[in-house]
């Protein structure tokens, strides 16, 4: 077996996420919106819970199309509050709709959300050299800066920890530990 970061290696879904997605530089706006939304729903919960509900979230949130999500109204919010397949937190649902609107504003201003978010890292991943999972930070000065900017633009549930998780998931930072087989692979992408 390949050496991994020390995640829950017994869960096949978690292994697949670690091996195929986490830390891979992502530049597709809809996927970036998906991760922003899922990370905000994950706040205070486990990522495994979110992964298990991910397909349900995709259905409920129109495959994370920010244009469609931005148009959700009270009827849709009520429907989502009845959907046991997702996290039924009204504040987080309303935040996702609000964030879709803010996301579209950033696309209009910068041409894409990708251009905006990746500008914070000079359009190339930060490659960290952590040796143990315990060394990974929950947030950094940079995630504080991005969080502050997103909040200034009207985003909700976008604290520094959520932002740093987003940066890790979308490859803005390579936080695979140095002994993990993905650390070197992701650097080549």
Question: From the alpha-carbon coordinates, what is the Rg to the nearest angstrom?
Answer: 16 Å
Content-based structural category: mainly alpha
Order of helices and strands: HHHHHHHEHHEH
Oligomeric nature of the chains: single chain
Helices, by number, come to 10
Q: How would you sum up the major sheet?
A: 2 strands, parallel
* Residues in β-strands, percent: under 5%
Helix content: 55-70%
Given as residue ranges, the uncertain stretches (5+ residues, pLDDT < 50) are none
Using the coordinates shown, work out and report the CATH topology.
Answer: Endonuclease III, domain 1
Termini separation: 22 Å
Explain the overall architecture.
The protein is an all-alpha fold and 189 residues long. It has one domain (12-187): Hypothetical protein, domain 2 (Endonuclease III, domain 1, Orthogonal Bundle). Helices cover 57% and strands 2% of the residues. The chain contains ten helices and two strands, in the order αααααααβααβα. The protein has a two-stranded parallel sheet. Helix 2 (29-42) packs antiparallel against helix 6 and helix 8 (141-152) packs across helix 9 (160-169). The longest helix has 21 residues, at 90-110. The two termini are 22 Å apart. The model has no long low-confidence stretch (mean pLDDT 95).
